[in-house]
Give the backbone structure.
Amino acid sequence: MKILITGGAGFVGSHLCRKLLEANNDVICMDNFYTGRKQNIADLLNNPHFRLIEGDITLPIEQEGLDQIYNLACPASPPAYQKDPIYTWRTSVFGMNNVLELSRRNGNIPILQASTSEVYGDPLEHPQKESYWGNVNPCGVRSCYDEGKRAAESICMDFFRKYKTPVRIVRIFNTYGPAMDPQDGRVVSNFIVQTLTNQDISMYGDGMQTRSFQYVSDLIKGMIKLMENKAGFTGPVNIGNPGEYTLKQLAEIILEMIPESKSKIVEQKNIREDDPRIRKPDISLAKKMLGWEPEISLTEGLTPTIEYFRKEVVVDRNRKS
Ligand code: NAD
Ligand code: UDP
């Protein structure tokens, strides 16, 4: 198949490009490198089945002969999506419209939208089921992302109802692994890089917020299962690891896994605005409809992730010296 992956040079997108190439597909990666990095896909550039298009999904996209679209283009880390919130919103909403139109021009081909657990906001229901409508501040600093993704889900379902476009909506919970940008400000990358470089571990507030962390290979398997499902299942469906940890626990686990570190956990006063206090997916729907559940535990996933960041830190040090 000929598959378009928007945001294919990002953290998740680059893993997806590789997996779909391994399965003998032709992959077109469209990315504007807003948060993505050339190094994530550098080894794919000579592969005759891979093509990079530098492009922006907020603009109409011309591409023929496609069989599937995975829409991942959107900054995902809070500092990155808050840097230019209007652009984040436009990427989510105008971008979604553009890729849905592209699907129609290619004969209404399947399109998978990378949505997020952020649609649940600061949830009042725990764990979060897909039937929960969420608790989102529509005017807050996170809303460019949360409301952008909610609007994207809504237009997907309208295309499905009006044009029968085969949409698939995956609500992704916090995911980590190699290819994350060490500078992108998410908690797993921050804590590991700080621990490897003997800096203070920046715990925002008392660290009692919880998140459920999933290793990237589990996510990729879930996304492909959703795309390939033959039942016409649109989702939305949660794909995440239900293992729930406080941020303090996460910092302690990382410290234990890097025993040579001299870092200490330090409470920061600058708590993020509207930071969700708890998050954990209910994955019964993914189990039932896709036969999917995560296989990699937190410590199993952190091991290769720490090794990846160890190399990144060395490269970064050499670059600076
Ligand atoms: P990322 O920032 O590493 O990747 C996003 C990619 O999209 C980057 O390569 C970026 O350059 C590209 N991009 C951004 N705006 C674009 C535009 N207008 N046109 C073309 N390309 C553009 O983030 P990620 O973690 O790989 O996330 C991928 C997708 O999964 C995102 O849509 C994100 O919202 C979603 N998601 C990720 C997580 C997670 O924990 N990683 C959780 C929930 C949802
Ligand atoms: N966080 C933290 N220190 C950091 C980065 C993040 O304590 O250096 C916290 C943040 O406040 C949030 C959680 O970790 O409660 C997850 O943040 P992340 O940016 O990874 O993703 P989010 O789930 O908020 O989108």
